[in-house]
Backbone:
């Protein structure tokens, strides 16, 4: 049977692929929008007032930002080196879409297992890039390839995962072709793994999409957890000698950083606290922070695995005194006996 040899959880946001000067482009959007934070929604100025005692002026100084950026580079390198060392044959990647392969208004499945043969990767057209919010197009190289590229999927495993989920009364969407309306190839949650962790030496893999982000059909954390548990049963029962890696891609708190929340989340993840992870209210798991549901699925997947979580780094990349930005983190579990 197939064997899981490695698990990794990593953030994947644009700040990992842009300079601190380019981070400032996002501050413009931060000021224009309203942002979920600890169950409520605030304007930029309201966040500055609310968080005035947290020292965010200093924590978002340009010097501090350069420090965060350097630590993230090291974190990504260490994660990629670990990948190189373990050399899994194939991967199963838990991630999400942000209006990249699905037009949210048109179709947005809660869970989708890609069962096709090939996964494309390519940049968006200039026309589509022009529609992106500030500071996003600048990061595209971090997950999208300049020229059209195709990666091999693992349709037999994808089909087996689907069958196992359906057998356990977990109805999922499948796609055997890349969605025709896709504005680019693999969504950034997946492209980040291909480019930054696998360093473009992409092994055959199964992309599994979860709608963490967009109401009204976001799965609850308990559902995300159960999903991961069943995916593990599927991998374990797949008749193959492949050594498998599993990934959770997304998070951590953003677009408003909440270190306290991230720390308690990671703590629960490390000690396999199912109750804590599955009782996080949906009001907290909104916007970019919602992507941690892919990590909750990974927690379900690792429920009965006896492997220790390793933290490479946790870096709260503040870009403004309102506490906006993305908290980045890099984690792995070695499951080789
Ligand atoms: Fe994302």
Residues:
């Amino acid at each position: 049977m197939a064997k899981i040899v490695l698990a990794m959880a990593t953030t994947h946001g644009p700040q990992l692929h842009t300079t601190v000067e380019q981070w400032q482009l996002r501050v413009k959007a931060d000021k224009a929008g309203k942002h979920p934070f600890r169950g409520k929604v605030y304007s930029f100025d309201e966040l500055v007032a609310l968080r005035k005692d947290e020292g965010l002026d200093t924590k978002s100084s340009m010097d501090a930002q350069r420090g965060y950026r350097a630590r993230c580079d090291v974190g990504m390198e260490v994660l990629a080196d670990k990948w190189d060392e373990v050399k899994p044959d194939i991967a199963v990647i838990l991630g999400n879409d942000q209006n990249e392969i699905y037009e949210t208004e048109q179709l947005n499945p809660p869970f989708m297992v890609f069962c096709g043969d090939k996964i494309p990767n390519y940049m968006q057209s200039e026309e589509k890039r022009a529609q992106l919010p500030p500071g996003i197009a600048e990061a595209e190289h971090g997950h999208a390839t300049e020229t059209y590229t195709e990666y091999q999927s693992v349709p037999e495993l994808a089909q087996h995962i689907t069958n196992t989920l359906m057998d356990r009364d977990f109805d999922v969407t499948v796609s055997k072709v890349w969605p025709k309306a896709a504005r680019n190839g693999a969504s950034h949650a997946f492209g980040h793994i291909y480019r930054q962790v696998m360093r473009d030496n992409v092994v055959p893999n199964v992309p599994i999409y979860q709608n963490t982000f967009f109401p009204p059909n976001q799965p609850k954390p308990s559902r995300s957890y159960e999903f991961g548990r069943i995916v593990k049963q599927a991998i374990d029962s797949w008749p193959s000698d492949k050594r498998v890696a599993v990934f959770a891609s997304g998070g951590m708190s953003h677009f408003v950083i909440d270190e306290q929340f991230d720390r308690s989340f990671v703590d629960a993840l490390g000690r396999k606290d199912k109750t804590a992870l599955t009782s996080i209210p949906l009001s907290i798991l909104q916007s970019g922070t919602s992507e941690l549901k892919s990590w909750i699925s990974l927690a379900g997947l690792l429920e009965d695995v006896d492997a220790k979580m390793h933290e490479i780094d946790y870096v709260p990349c503040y870009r403004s005194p309102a506490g906006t930005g993305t908290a980045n983190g890099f984690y792995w579990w070695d499951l080789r006996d």
Notes: Residues 183 and 266 are 33 Å apart (CA to CA). Residues 12-13, 98, 188-189, 250, 291 surround fe (ii) ion (CB under 6 Å). The longest helix spans residues 62-86. The domain at 3-334 is CATH 3.40.830.10 (Protocatechuate 4,5-dioxygenase; Chain B).
